[in-house]
Structures are given as structure tokens and as C-alpha cells.
């Protein structure tokens, strides 16, 4: 196991290239289950979750070659079982359900991470697939699904679930007839999945809105596709510029997909300027407090809540955060308190009183975005910060310490 040792207090200045999106790459890679022909993907980030996904595809019988952010997929004989050993480490593994049922008419998938069938949002996936003709049973920790042939259906989600929308888009692409998804999630990563499938001959319209129409086709064609840049990584580096009093040029940065985040950062006092496909971010003044409520896209993303809270810790005044998407999304708070932050929690709300500076301390990452927040806090803090359990960080950020060190950070990865 490794940790990061961070010497804080240096403003970040320079250029950072934004990697491909983890949250877009995972469903796009898993959608290769639908194919009987080779597919090539570019701009795929080298991350722990991507490696897990490729291992899962290999177990299912799909050959994968991963070199220089390019993945070449070649289908072989397709298995229908996703074992617990891999599924337990990555919740997105549930996304194999839809494509396996569409291709093979059966799927045996371990419950991800101890999730019960009735827990949100997996029940939304299953009830929607049932409307398309699938039947499910739970046996020895596995969801077992079967169908003769998925049929198009008119489906309304109770909640705009990202994973559920992705699973149903994949399933409906090879289903018989037309499927309509109402109250669908609108995240850019869903649009990227639909764009990829359309490039291979799928017939999907309405993606990016809350009503998506999928006309099933008999098969998909070979194609080459480049994954969109990672908006959460880009937003994280924007916050890094603000927390360190620096300035960064973010190359290949998804500006339009970050409107809700950029709006709050500008209100806090950051200068943010779009330059063709790049974005320039500069800390120009004393940080001002803001209030945020996490919402499904196009609202403020829950995946940026922790990072923005780190920035709020240094604002001149009181900020508030209301988390409406996930429970237990405030696990970074106790670690920020160790670094001198002033935060009070009440249910799903946090009140942050800004302080003049944070101070280095040993801290422990609890999840992916919390770990990024602790790195940012360490960069801004006085003294040395040690971030433990950074395997969370490696799930979603490609070579983060290398990118940050190139713009002035002082970070070392060492054994714990």
C-alpha cells in the first residue's frame, strides 16, 4: 500500500492535459459486449477501474489490448457470468446486465459491493429490464436474468439514474422494436455512450435530454471512437488553482459540461476563460463564500462536492453544502477538520466557516473524490500532509501526482 507525501504552500502554474473520462469510458467499454466485430477506443485513461473493466471483459470472453490510452476490443465466445471477485471492487460492473441480456438472453452478475436488490439505483435497472421481458432471481449473491428476446418498451424512471439509463440504452440498442426512456439521466457521459453506439449503427435519439428513444437494430458495426475528456478531473484541477492561488491552462477541457461548477467558481472569485478547446483558470482575489446543492446534471455534480468544500474552507465567510444524491458523501469532513477546517454537519447539510489557512496532517482517504480533496488541501496547507489509502485516488485520476508536480506541486508517492 502507498501514500502521498505533500509539501504545501506552492502556487500551481503551468499546463495540464485533461485525460479521458472515467465515467464515460466504463459504460462505453462495457457496451463492447453488444458487438460481434472488433472495436477501437482512443483517449481511454489508465486507471484502476479501467483495468478492472478490461479484466471483466476478458473473463466474459472479449479480448482486450490496452496501449498508450488506446483499447482494441475483439469479441470471442461470450460468457454470461460476471464473478464477485471483480464486481465487488467496482459498482459500474452492474452495467453488464443490459448488454448480456441483449446479446445472449441471460446474465449472471454478482451483486456489486454488497448492494441489496432493493437498494437504489439497482432496482431501477431491474424493473426497467423486466418491462422489456427479462425475469430475475437472486441466488447466492448473484442476480440471474433471463429472457427470450428483449422487446422495446415505454419506461419511466422514478429517478433519473445514470447507471440505469446507460444499462437500458445498451439493452435497447439490440432489442426488438422501439424503447422510450422517460425521466432519463442527462449526464454528458450518457451522451458520449449514445454517440459511440450511433457511430456503430445504433439508432438513438434524444440523448442529452430527459426522453431518449432507441430503435433496436439487429447488430452493430465495427467502429473507432474517442472517449470524451473528464469533466470531474478538469473541475478538480480548477479547484487546485483556486486553493493554491495559482493559474493553470487546462488542455482539452470540457467547458460546456462544467457550467454549474464554473458558475460557482467564478462567484468565489476565480477567473475562468475559454480558449478554443482549452480553459484558463486563475486565482485573482480573496475567495468568497457560496452555497451549493448537488443535483443531477445539469445541476451541480455530487462528484465535485468534496473538492468545492475544500475551496470553501479557505473562503472569507460562511458557505453551505446540501448533498441530495448520495448518503455518506461527507466522509472527507473529519479529515479536513484534522487540517484546521471549520465545518459543522447536520444530516445532509454542511456549514463551512472559512479559515485563513489549512495545516498539514496525516489524513486518510475514504473514497475517490474525498481523496482528491485531501490532495488539494495538502497542496494549499502549511507544512506536510500525508494522504493514506490512495488506491481510491488511482481509481479515477490518471497520474495525478505527475500532472501536479509538473506545474509546481511537491508530491511524493511512497510506501506506507
Automatic annotation (TrEMBL):
<feature type="binding site">
    <location>
        <position position="325"/>
    </location>
    <ligand>
        <name>UDP-N-acetyl-alpha-D-glucosamine</name>
    </ligand>
</feature>
<keyword id="KW-0133">Cell shape</keyword>
<dbReference type="Pfam" id="PF00275">
    <property type="entry name" value="EPSP_synthase"/>
</dbReference>
<dbReference type="InterPro" id="IPR005750">
    <property type="entry name" value="UDP_GlcNAc_COvinyl_MurA"/>
</dbReference>
<feature type="binding site">
    <location>
        <position position="91"/>
    </location>
    <ligand>
        <name>UDP-N-acetyl-alpha-D-glucosamine</name>
    </ligand>
</feature>
<dbReference type="InterPro" id="IPR001986">
    <property type="entry name" value="Enolpyruvate_Tfrase_dom"/>
</dbReference>
<feature type="binding site">
    <location>
        <begin position="120"/>
        <end position="124"/>
    </location>
    <ligand>
        <name>UDP-N-acetyl-alpha-D-glucosamine</name>
    </ligand>
</feature>
<feature type="domain" description="Enolpyruvate transferase">
    <location>
        <begin position="7"/>
        <end position="404"/>
    </location>
</feature>
<dbReference type="GO" id="GO:0008360">
    <property type="term" value="P:regulation of cell shape"/>
</dbReference>
<comment type="function">
    <text>Cell wall formation. Adds enolpyruvyl to UDP-N-acetylglucosamine.</text>
</comment>
<keyword id="KW-0131">Cell cycle</keyword>
<dbReference type="GO" id="GO:0009252">
    <property type="term" value="P:peptidoglycan biosynthetic process"/>
</dbReference>
<feature type="binding site">
    <location>
        <begin position="22"/>
        <end position="23"/>
    </location>
    <ligand>
        <name>phosphoenolpyruvate</name>
    </ligand>
</feature>
<keyword id="KW-0670">Pyruvate</keyword>
<dbReference type="GO" id="GO:0005737">
    <property type="term" value="C:cytoplasm"/>
</dbReference>
<keyword id="KW-0961">Cell wall biogenesis/degradation</keyword>
<comment type="pathway">
    <text>Cell wall biogenesis; peptidoglycan biosynthesis.</text>
</comment>
<keyword id="KW-0808">Transferase</keyword>
<dbReference type="GO" id="GO:0019277">
    <property type="term" value="P:UDP-N-acetylgalactosamine biosynthetic process"/>
</dbReference>
<dbReference type="InterPro" id="IPR050068">
    <property type="entry name" value="MurA_subfamily"/>
</dbReference>
<feature type="modified residue" description="2-(S-cysteinyl)pyruvic acid O-phosphothioketal">
    <location>
        <position position="115"/>
    </location>
</feature>
<keyword id="KW-0132">Cell division</keyword>
<keyword id="KW-0573">Peptidoglycan synthesis</keyword>
<protein>
    <recommendedName>
        <fullName>UDP-N-acetylglucosamine 1-carboxyvinyltransferase</fullName>
        <ecNumber>2.5.1.7</ecNumber>
    </recommendedName>
</protein>
<dbReference type="InterPro" id="IPR036968">
    <property type="entry name" value="Enolpyruvate_Tfrase_sf"/>
</dbReference>
<dbReference type="GO" id="GO:0071555">
    <property type="term" value="P:cell wall organization"/>
</dbReference>
<feature type="binding site">
    <location>
        <position position="303"/>
    </location>
    <ligand>
        <name>UDP-N-acetyl-alpha-D-glucosamine</name>
    </ligand>
</feature>
<dbReference type="InterPro" id="IPR013792">
    <property type="entry name" value="RNA3'P_cycl/enolpyr_Trfase_a/b"/>
</dbReference>
<dbReference type="GO" id="GO:0008760">
    <property type="term" value="F:UDP-N-acetylglucosamine 1-carboxyvinyltransferase activity"/>
</dbReference>
<keyword id="KW-0963">Cytoplasm</keyword>
<feature type="active site" description="Proton donor">
    <location>
        <position position="115"/>
    </location>
</feature>
<dbReference type="GO" id="GO:0051301">
    <property type="term" value="P:cell division"/>
</dbReference>
<comment type="similarity">
    <text>Belongs to the EPSP synthase family. MurA subfamily.</text>
</comment>
